[in-house]
Write a structure and sequence with these properties.
The protein is α+β, with helices and mostly antiparallel strands. It has one domain: 2,3-Dihydroxybiphenyl 1,2-Dioxygenase, domain 1 (Roll). Helices cover 19% and strands 38% of the residues. A hairpin with a 2-residue loop joins strand 7 and strand 8. This is VOC family protein. InterPro entries: Glyas_Bleomycin-R_OHBP_Dase, Glyoxalase_6. It holds the Pfam family Glyoxalase_6.
């Protein structure tokens, strides 16, 4: 039986399948629910719900290639990974981008590096110190 959800985040996406697939793979969050308007990803008491931007709004959103980072938001999702290097390869394969490794820093005993998803949303990955 999975752990009960004790925290969650909601992320709006123009391309629901692309963004939910990205975070499912990067954060190792299995899909627990998939409906036409949202996908729920969940593990270890945390749930990320990716919600489709309504079509009338989605047509006004331009996603460039590569995406422009959306850094003008006060919230950043953070995920813990086993290896920043391995995660960076996966991020690139799935349409996102990590900052160069030399821009990483130490925080609370973890090596930390920011990146962005295929729609430009900034996130952070943390690798626990070994």
């Amino acid at each position: 039986m999975p752990a009960p959800v004790s925290s969650a985040a909601v992320l709006y996406a123009k391309d629901l399948a692309l963004v939910s697939g990205f975070y499912s793979a990067i954060a190792e969050l299995p899909v627990t629910e998939s409906e036409p308007g949202h996908v729920a990803l969940e593990a270890n008491g945390f749930q990320l719900v990716v919600v489709a931007v309504p079509p009338h709004i989605a047509t006004t959103i331009q996603i460039q290639s590569p995406p422009v980072r959306r850094e003008d938001t006060p919230i950043k999702l953070v995920f813990f990974v086993r290896s920043l290097a391995a995660a960076a390869v996966k991020v690139a394969r799935l349409g996102g981008q990590m900052n160069p490794p030399e821009q990483s820093w130490q925080f609370q005993g973890a090596q930390v590096l920011d990146g962005h998803d295929p729609e430009g949303n900034v996130f952070q990955l943390r690798q626990a110190a070994r």
